[in-house]
Amino acid sequence: AADVFDYDLLTGRHVVITAGPTREPIDPVRYLTNKSSGKMGFALAAAAAEAGARVTLIAGPVVLDTPNRVERINVVRAEDMYQASLDAVEKGCDIFIATAAVADYRPTVTADHKIKKSTEEIHLTLVKNPDIIAAVADHANRPFTVGFAAETQDVIEYAQGKLKNKNLDMIATNDVSGTDVGFNSDNNALTVIWPNGHKVLPLASKTQIAKQLIELIAIRQG
Ligand code: CTP
Ligand code: CA
């Protein structure tokens, strides 16, 4: 439990965490994005640092203070987050946790100038962004890889599918159809799944949940 948190649990380990949304520019003043406060990723970064890890936090555009002893890399687009993540894995890390709400698609072109209002309808063509966590899990220098899945229905089934298809070691999942969990909330409840087991982390503050998840990751990573 969090009250007996081991402050040496991750000493000597390098943990890389993605957090927040990404922002995909349409023109100089407009963008596509996802709903994400970044709070869960920042809480995990703080908990990992408290557990003695060296922590790199790859953050999309969020207004949150960088936790103590955490190295923060700010990114905007999914492609920038992909580059920063693969660079970190290339250099070597032990644990990769993807909490970011990455935009699945980006506009095929970004206009150089503000798009002016003209016709009643305009069409935006989108292209798929690279899957960051899948690329990390496929890397020759593969860290222990942990994903997140926020779902509004069939939560466990979708999460199990992602665990398998993306070749992850663990996935933390939450039901965001309710009101007091996930997203902008300060609380969260997670079901954590790995290839042959699972654990429920009941509703608690994101700080508490982060400590519990960090403990679980440290134990399973071995
Ligand atoms: N993820 C990622 N790169 C992407 C999309 C998702 O690294 N381009 C990561 C997220 O950070 C999360 C996990 O993959 O840890 C699951 O994200 P999610 O959006 O639930 O899954 P998708 O594979 O994008 O599937 P869908 O949105 O269709 O449910
Ligand atoms: Ca997605």
How would you sum up this structure, described in words?
This protein has 222 residues and is α/β, with parallel strands linked by helices. Helices cover 27% and strands 30% of the residues. β9, α4 (155-165) and β10 (170-175) form a beta-alpha-beta unit. It contains five helices and twelve strands. The protein has helices spanning 39-50, 78-91, 132-138, 155-165, 206-221, and strands spanning 14-19, 23-27, 30-33, 54-59, 70-74, 95-98, 105-107, 126-128, 144-151, 170-175, 187-194, 197-205. The model has no long low-confidence stretch (mean pLDDT 94). The strands form three sheets. An eight-stranded mixed beta sheet has the order 5-4-1-6-9-10-11-12, sandwiched between helices. The protein has a two-stranded antiparallel sheet with strand order 2-3. The protein has a two-stranded antiparallel ribbon with strand order 7-8. α1 (39-50) packs across α5 (206-221). It is globular, with a radius of gyration of 18 Å. The chain has one domain (6-112, 124-221): CoaB-like (Rossmann fold), CATH 3.40.50. The structure holds cytidine-5'-triphosphate (CTP) and calcium ion. Residues 18, 78, 98, 100, 102, 104, 129, 131-133, 147-149, 162 line the site of cytidine-5'-triphosphate.
Name the features.
222 residues, alpha/beta, Rossmann fold, eight-stranded mixed beta sheet, two-stranded antiparallel sheet, 30% strand, globular, binds cytidine-5'-triphosphate, binds calcium ion, multifunctional enzyme, EC 4.1.1.36
